[in-house]
Specification:
With about 190 residues, this protein is of the alpha+beta class. The chain is built from 4 helices and 10 strands. The strands form 2 sheets. It has an 8-stranded mixed β-sheet. Strands 2-3 form a two-stranded antiparallel sheet.
């Protein structure tokens, strides 16, 4: 599994960097290069349910890996607002939605070069330990489960931990990053997709 949290530099695509931003970088994991195809190509852990705010960070990471992201689709079950278009770094991503046809815990990403990636969407309120397990499972080439099945499995195996698990005032994102979530592999070492 490759965990990406830094935005890649357009001049040196193999060196991850963190750009100054008013919003933290996306939390993304992608299957290793050459992995066998399955139902999922990786996992995305957004910080909120605001697609307009979350998609630019995600496309900043995905554009260098799979070619310019042109469209994403979601199931509107967990997204209060699904915008038709979202301006991202230098272009616009069209956003579509499907009700029964798309798993509510998956994001479909379409791009010029790779074509299609299916990502598990980890709910923003998920604790850091559960998110780490879900990211690893979604990137395991042996996993042949849907996003909803992975979320259900996680809830069955690890019921919600009490609120005392993290120190008061510490957000889930801070906990994840304090536990190593901010470590990024070289962008050139990532892969996946079909």
């Amino acid at each position: 599994m490759t965990v990406l949290t830094a935005r890649p530099s357009p001049t040196t695509p193999t060196t991850p960097i963190t750009e100054a931003s008013d919003y933290p970088p996306a939390r993304l994991s992608i299957k290793p290069p050459g992995s066998r195809p399955g139902l999922l190509d990786g996992a995305w852990w957004p910080r909120s349910r605001d697609l307009t705010r979350e998609l630019p960070g995600l496309t900043d990471l995905l554009d260098p890996l799979c070619g310019r992201v042109t469209r994403v689709t979601v199931n509107p079950t967990h997204w209060p607002v699904v915008p038709r278009k979202v301006p991202v770094n230098g272009h616009v991503v069209k956003v579509g939605w499907y009700g029964k046809e798309q798993d509510p815990h998956q994001l479909l990403v379409l791009s010029y070069r790779v074509g299609r990636w299916d990502l598990l969407i980890i709910p923003p309120e998920t604790d850091a330990a559960a998110a780490g397990r879900l990211m690893a499972t979604a990137c395991d080439p042996r996993t042949l489960r849907t996003g909803s099945a992975l979320i259900a499995d996680e809830l069955d195996r690890h019921p919600a931990a009490p609120a005392e698990a993290d120190p008061p005032g510490r957000t889930q994102a801070e906990a994840w990053e304090a536990e190593g979530g901010a470590v990024a592999a070289p962008v050139g070492a990532t892969g996946g997709g079909r």
